[in-house]
Amino acid sequence: MPARLSYSAMVSKTELENAKRAASVREGENDKMTEAIVAQDLRKNFEDVEAVAGLSFEVRRGELFGFLGPNGAGKTTTINMLTGLARPDGGRIQIGGIDCTGRPKAAQHLIGVVPDESNLYPELTGFENLCFCAALYGRGKAERRARARELLETFGLAQAADRKFGGYSKGMKRKLTMAAGIIHRPEILFLDEPTTGIDVASARQVRQLIADLNHSGTTVFLTTHYIEEAERLCHRIAFIVSGRIVRNDTVERLVQPIQEKHRVEISCANPVDGLEEKLAASFPGLRFKAASPTQVRVEADHPVPVGPLVRFLEDAGAEVTEARRMRPSLEDIFVEATGIEAGAMQGEKEKRGTGQ
Amino acid sequence: MKRWIAFWNILDKDMRTYYLKPPNISWGLIFPLAWTGMFFIRSGRGLDSILTLLPGMTAVSILFGTTSMLAVTVTFEKRSRSFERLLLAPLPLEFLMLAKTGGAILFGMANAFVPVVMAAFLADLSGVAWSLFVPAVILIAVASTFLGLFIAVAVSEVFEAQTFSNFFRFPMIFLCGLFFPIEKLPIFLKPLSYIIPLTYGADVLHGSVHGGNTMPYTLDLSVLFVFCALLFAASLWNIKRKWIL
Predict the structure, then answer these.
(1) Contact by Cβ (8 Å): B228, B200
(2) Contact B90 A117 (CB under 8 A)
């Protein structure tokens, strides 16, 4: 049976755009750039639990910064401290150049927050909710009505403008909550897991809106447990585990160490005894690892010769069903840095999301 | 100016979504009506009892109107996390909480005038000292509202807020001298009467309606003002301590 070769190593248009944006953000470092968010040695305990243990990071103006970590890693606690909803036990916070240490409200006029749960008023309509949120930032009646209509249109909610928020679907609620977070055109936007628990189409739309917002100059601080989402959207990503940042760098630099590695995953219909050993003996320049009795992963520092490998396996009695060239991804880096399987993290959050 | 836009809109939203809803309006009307009727019949003195009952009815209407609504709405918004929207707004916490309690204060004041309007049809109110009555109503409404706020921020569940409210409200009614003179209370209960804000409000109301006050008006109004300030400060302290973790 001939092997079906597929290549998942396509570099997407989004990633290219992402790289361009990252470059433009770095270029800006020298002129208008100052830090939008500075956290130094942030600490927070809840009784005996150390939720955040000395976090230090900076987010530059115009940057889309991702905070990636499992449930309970301290992502929401960090956002709450940065936005004034939680008081740090120690450390220093600076938002938009304003020192907010001990003054949680000092920079609230600069920020917008989209929390991990939709928390608008169920008894108000979508339009009323947006107008109310704009009023909290002192916007006049005509301005807030125009802005609310504009955002309802942008988020595809114009048809539901006069329906009560309590009757919205989860995806609609998420989008309206996001619209409420940007109603006052904040310089810095905090998004806490914006796509958790919503359908694929809504999630995709939300991701596009985040990218558009960032393109228009808004600094975005995004927490997520979706590695692909972070990889596609963010310029820089910090991995947070148990209240500590274990890695913090640009996407390009994070994947750099494994960029030169070449990987192929070969699947067979039937198990072959001693497959790994046989391959290792015949292809000394390659590294083999059996992922399962019918699947083997091949890794090398040079392009892997797929054809000879497949022929060798078929001669050895294996029925090869697929040979995939794998591009090293951020997921590999995340697993390596945190010791957490990305799939497990995502599964856990999906359960939580659907239960919301 | 920007702050006042926020203030007015918080007040307006609360009035529309909580206080001006039909069940609350009926509560505001029926409750004072029922209490007035009950004490009117109980007094057995016919229309002569109206002026004696009016201060008590006014104070009770304010107390129940403000504490019950505020304790529930604030607790509910905290539970649903919509209160976070307010905490994230660039408004000083004191200003924000004044806006949040403004609706309850106005609701309490409106409730106060239900028994007044009813009494106007049944008795001669020309002797009422409105210059004392109105400030007393305002201060009782503010003190009761801040008591409701204090309760709301001290608990986390709506049912706890209701239970806790009654724990304060019912003893207050009987200890503040509205329906039973403080002098006739057992000696061990008398000190309790003087640590209740309603005692001072009731005294001004009695004085303004039929001249039966037992303390100087300046003392009554000053003590009420101090209670307002203390309850508000305690509530803010609790919000900072318990809600901004």
Answers:
(1) no
(2) no
Between A267 and A1, name the one with better pLDDT: A267
Six-digit token string for A69: 């970590």
Distance CA A198, CA A168 (A): 12
CATH class of A13-256: alpha beta
Is some CB atom of chain A closer than 8 A to the CB atom of B22? no
The count of other CB atoms within 10 Å of the CB of residue A200 is: 9
This complex has an ipTM of 0.86
DSSP states of chain B: -HHHHHHHHHHHHHIIIIITSHHHHHHHHHHHHHHHHHHHHHH-SGGGGHHHHHHHHHHHHHHHHHHHHHHHHHHHHHHTTTHHHHHHSSS-HHHHHHHHHHHHHHHHHHHHHHHHHHHHHHS--TT--HHHHHHHHHHHHHHHHHHHHHHHHH-SSHHHHHHHHHHHHHHHHHHTTSSS-GGGS-TTTHHHHTT-HHHHHHHHHHHHHHS--SS-HHHHHHHHHHHHHHHHHHHHHHIIIII--
In B74-103, the residues whose Cβ lies within 8 Å of chain A are 80-82, 84-93
Q: Which of A5, A4, A38, A14 is nearest to A235 (CA)?
A: A14
B57 Cβ contact list (under 8 Å, min separation 6): B32, B35, B36, B39, B115, B119
**Yes or no, beta carbons of A108 and B17 under 8 Å apart:** no
- What CATH number was assigned to the domain covering residues A4-10+258-330? 3.30.2350.10
DSSP secondary structure code for residue A85 in this structure = S
- Measured between beta carbons, which residues in chain A are less than 8 angstroms from residue B17? 121, 123-124
% pLDDT > 70, chain A: 86
pLDDT for the residue numbered A345: 59
Exposed/middle/buried for B20, CB within 10 Å: 0-12, 13-18, 19+? middle
Q: Could you tell me the end-to-end alpha-carbon distance of chain B, in angstroms, rounded to an integer?
A: 30
Cβ separation of B245 and A140 shorter than 8 Å?
Answer: no
Mean pLDDT value of segment A235-254:
90
Q: What is the pTM of this model?
A: 0.80
Angle, CA of B82, A194 and A93, to the nearest 5°: 75
Please give the pLDDT value at position A121: 94
- Asked if B109 and B138 count as a contact pair (C-beta separation under 8 A), the reply is yes
d(CA B178, CA B169): 13
Residue A29 and residue A26: Cα distance in Å, rounded?
5
Across B180-191, b (16+ Cβ under 10 Å) vs e yields eebeebeeeeee
Domain ranges of chain A: 4-10+258-330, 13-256
Q: Residues with Cβ < 8 Å from B11, sequence gap 6 or more?
A: B99, B102, B103, B106
